[in-house]
From TrEMBL:
Cellular component terms (Gene Ontology): acrosomal vesicle; ciliary base; sperm flagellum
Classification lineage: Eukaryota, Metazoa, Chordata, Craniata, Vertebrata
Record's compositionally biased regions (Basic and acidic residues): 200-214
Organism per entry: Crocuta crocuta
Domain of life: Eukaryota
Name this protein carries in UniProt: SACA9 protein
Pfam family, one: SPACA9
Length: 226
């Protein structure tokens, strides 16, 4: 989990640098749309930005900022895969992760996306740009970052795997003890006690002579006198 959080922080730092150059990003997309003779259609997907970069980008400044955006999207996609491998998930975390995976897909239609407060990326656009052309593409990354932060917040409330690992050896010992066959010595204990009793009888001194008759009353002659 710590590695995933560190990766997310790294992407956030890259996005902050990208956000400072939003006007450069919009200008690059505008140049590409002109070169592609595609001024009517809004930016609807990451795949469209990739296509513009590959086929309609004519200067290094535009290419640099477009590649920066695509690189952030690629890292977000990889982080989705890392999240998926961390734990099996709950209905809440699975729903958040599915939204992230859908948004970061190359073909996902992002034209209707609009980042809301506290994000102000849409406010930096003109009304026409925000409504018709670039509102979705500038909203994509902040929306995904918010969903990922929410995923981590919910995941940190789940039982830690380390606690499961601690309890496993103890549970394994209990299972082993329960499955072990009963000791053979328990069946021999009555016989041992019998043997000990018989051995004590043999070893104890036997009463001799008078001792054997001491329990009988003394003999009296007829008449009652000795």
């Amino acid at each position: 989990m710590n590695e995933a959080k560190e990766s997310l922080r790294s992407i956030e730092q890259k996005y902050k640098l990208f956000q400072q150059q939003q006007f450069t990003f919009i200008a690059a997309l505008e140049h590409c749309r002109e070169n592609a003779h595609d001024k009517i259609r809004p930016i609807t997907s990451i795949g469209q930005v990739q296509s513009y970069t590959d086929h309609h980008c004519n200067n290094s400044t535009d290419r640099r900022i477009l590649l920066m955006f695509l690189d952030i999207c690629t890292e977000l996609n990889k982080l989705c895969q890392s999240f998926e491998a961390l734990h099996s998930g709950t209905p809440v975390t699975n729903n958040l992760l599915e939204k992230c995976k859908s948004l970061v897909s190359q073909s996902n239609d992002l034209s209707s996306l609009r980042a809301k407060y506290p994000h102000d990326v849409v406010n930096h656009l003109s009304c026409d740009e925000a409504r018709n052309h670039y509102g979705g593409v500038v909203s994509l990354v902040p929306i995904i970052l918010d969903l990922m932060k929410e995923w981590i917040a919910h995941s940190e409330k789940l039982p830690r795997k380390s606690l499961q690992h601690v309890s496993e050896p103890h549970a394994r010992q209990e299972v082993t003890a329960a499955a072990a066959p009963p000791s053979r010595t328990t069946g021999t204990q009555p016989r041992l006690r019998k043997h000990k009793r018989s051995q004590l009888k043999k070893d104890s001194p036997q009463p001799r002579g008078r001792d054997t008759r001491c329990s009988k009353p003394p003999w009296r002659p007829p008449g009652g006198k000795l």
